[in-house]
Design a protein that fits this description.
alpha+beta; Aminopeptidase; globular
Length: 206
């Protein structure tokens, strides 16, 4: 993507390690009901630092003047590759940051790991690339920031030669599904990452 995409007071630009902490906080506060959000900002910061550091993944930040992160999107050309890197380099630090939450949620942790590494059992193979997460601070919603972040993510996939990518969204999250569909994602499969929690996988193709 370009160094900076400006619209009004909001700038969309590539993120780096310094954006991991504010992105983690946004994820924990705004992506309600997700297993990763339940592990807390400390765990998420470790994850987003790996996203920003690994060449196979990327973090894109939405910034308001004078530079505060008010939204982000994270993507990877290989979910399996990213989590493999995360386990090798960050597992101990992340586990210590979320030790209480992990001990209380071991089955969910194993379900999330299985889904990230092998995908849903009941469907044909899905794209390896994934839009991992996206969030916008409440005060900046309704200004097109989410749509611009998703568009920037798709543009980044294209620049990397990625021709297909998936995103998993809670089936009840109509707002997010509509946003992704507007960006060219199409519904591909219903999945149950965690028992009793229905999600929808949408796929974008170049």
């Amino acid at each position: 993507m370009n160094e900076g995409d400006h619209e009004g007071a909001i700038t969309i630009a590539p993120g780096g390690p310094d954006d991991a902490a504010p992105s983690a906080l946004l994820h924990a506060e705004q992506i309600q009901g997700g297993f990763l959000a339940a592990l807390g900002p400390g765990f998420l910061e470790c994850l987003y630092r790996r996203v920003a550091a690994w060449p196979g993944a990327f973090l894109i930040a939405a910034r308001a003047e004078p530079g505060a992160v008010v939204g982000f999107v994270a993507g990877t050309s290989s979910t399996r590759g990213l989590y493999g890197q995360f386990i090798v380099h960050d597992a101990l630090r992340a586990a210590l940051a979320a030790r209480r939450q992990l001990l209380a949620r071991i089955p969910e942790a194993l379900e999330t790991w299985r889904y990230s590494m092998v995908g849903p059992r009941q469907h044909a193979p899905l794209p390896a690339a994934e839009l991992l997460s996206m969030a916008v601070a409440p005060g900046f919603r309704g200004r097109g920031v989410g749509g611009r972040l998703v568009a920037a993510c798709v543009a980044e996939f294209k620049s990397r030669g990625v021709t297909a990518a998936k995103v998993t969204v809670g089936s009840a999250n109509r707002t997010a599904i509509t946003l992704y569909e507007a960006a060219g994602f199409r519904r591909a499969a219903g999945v149950e990452v965690h028992r009793g929690q229905q999600s929808q996988v949408l796929v974008w193709r170049a």
